[in-house]
Amino acid sequence: MAAATVLAAGLCAARRAVAVAGPRGAQPRRERNEPAMNDALHRPGHRGGHRVRGAAAVTDGNEVAKAQQAAPGGAAPTIFSRILDRSLPADILYEDQQCLVFRDVAPQAPVHFLVIPKKPIPRISQAEEEDQQLLGHLLLVAKKTAKAEGLGDGYRLVINDGKLGAQSVYHLHIHVLGGRQLQWPPG
């Protein structure tokens, strides 16, 4: 029930932001070497000084806590299935018959986007042999989109799996992060 309340509050915030900024977001695109700056859409408690691009932040707070509360196999649609059916807006960068790419609403780097399959695979650990071509396609789309986003100097791909992997949305997704020096180890 608490997760539904948090999701509803986030959706309301997203709708308000879309009404103000338009469906594709109105934040200016930052040049690759421009320093990250706070602006009116920067959320309190958000790590780093990155601009939020696209729709308003639907996710606030600690991702690990959200992963601990996430339902791994509920009947309710996920936030990503709602983006796929266009009932929730997103800043879409690429789409084809197999996948969708859009900016993360709570970016952890100057460039942070997600690659999701249109086929609803809840977790990478639940992918089947028949998903082999789709999984390869997702990686190639991530590579092409990273290049289009100016990430020629490198980037990171992240797939969270399950509660201990901090997966908070049970629809397979690849995070692509870049635009700054990423640290190691990541976790």
UniProtKB/TrEMBL annotation:
Region spans: Disordered: 21-52
Residues annotated as catalytic: 173
Signal peptide (UniProt feature, chain positions): 1-19
Listed SUPFAM superfamilies: HIT-like
Motif (Histidine triad motif): 171-175
Superkingdom assignment: Eukaryota
Name this polypeptide is given: Histidine triad nucleotide-binding protein 2, mitochondrial isoform X1
Organism: Balaenoptera musculus
